[in-house]
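Translate structure to sequence.
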């Protein structure tokens, strides 16, 4: 349900989609070769992905719109195919996610969408709910835990714009990254018995492979341009802008910066998050990350 034809799955201590019963439970990925047709363009595969997911359910969709480009792409795909979708925007106290909320509202205004804006008290969450959620999967990053709580606000099928293709500069080359932590929301939903599409981009492997072949990705996947991960973050916006010219490039953020102008920085106001992260780090959780070159990744799934 979470991934087409189970093209990707994982085990904990050998049990498929099992539970992480302690912080050191062994995690492993498995892959099935499920692509048996010629690939379409990246945009065509994004729209095909949208149609496949729509065919899975009768219930309405609830998109958790973060204000980043990934959830914006999910929204634009559904609108282009005239698939109804509700939009939720979560607003933290003290304007902690000021920039993301402003971008999410701007996107809705431009697309003539009336979102449901939810006031979400981040500090209250970390003081009251975060530990219980963390214990359900011993998740690696405190910043992912609020997203799991947000899923509870959806009465329909929650969708999150996660699972977007991750290319990182690792050991002096560009590689495709798959990590246990990046699947935290899916792990949480599976363990909770909650039907959802948290890793929307990863639902179909064709999306990930066609992304590699987009013209904007050529110099990255072929390791022609040595660079830091920042280069990929910037390049990603222009890739999507090539597909939807109305998309506005902006700095990638973690979603807790408040008015801090630096991207990917955590506001000093969020001491409660920092302390929670320190607490879970004391458990020494095992966190699996796998890296693949373009050819290695293609060989896994085609």
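Result:
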């Amino acid at each position: 349900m979470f991934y087409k034809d189970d093209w990707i799955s994982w085990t904990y201590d050998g049990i498929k989609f099992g539970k992480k019963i302690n912080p050191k439970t062994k995690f492993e990925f498995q892959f099935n070769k499920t692509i048996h047709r010629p690939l379409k363009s990246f945009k065509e595969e994004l729209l095909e992905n949208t149609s496949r997911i729509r065919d899975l359910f009768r219930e309405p969709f609830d998109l958790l719109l973060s204000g980043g480009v990934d959830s914006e792409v999910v929204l634009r795909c559904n609108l282009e195919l005239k698939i109804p979708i509700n939009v939720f925007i979560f607003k933290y106290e003290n304007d902690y996610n000021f920039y993301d909320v402003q971008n999410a509202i701007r996107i809705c205004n431009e697309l003539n969408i009336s979102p449901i804006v939810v006031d979400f008290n981040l500090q209250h969450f970390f003081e009251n709910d975060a530990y219980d959620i963390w214990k359900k999967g011993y998740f690696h990053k405190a910043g992912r835990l609020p997203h799991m709580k947000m899923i509870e606000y959806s009465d329909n099928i929650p969708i999150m714009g996660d699972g977007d293709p991750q290319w990182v500069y690792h050991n002096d080359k560009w590689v495709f990254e798959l990590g246990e932590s990046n699947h935290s929301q899916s792990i949480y939903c599976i363990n909770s018995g909650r039907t959802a599409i948290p890793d929307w981009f990863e639902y179909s492997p064709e999306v990930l492979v066609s992304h590699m072949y987009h013209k904007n990705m050529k110099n990255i996947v072929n390791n022609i341009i040595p660079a830091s991960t920042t280069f990929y973050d910037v390049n990603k916006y222009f890739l999507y802008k090539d597909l939807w010219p109305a998309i506005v490039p902006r700095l990638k953020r973690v979603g807790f910066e408040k008015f801090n102008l630096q991207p990917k920085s955590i506001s000093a106001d969020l001491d409660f998050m920092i302390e929670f992260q320190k607490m879970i780090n004391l458990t020494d959780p095992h966190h699996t990350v796998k890296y693949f070159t373009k050819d290695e990744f293609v060989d896994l799934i085609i």
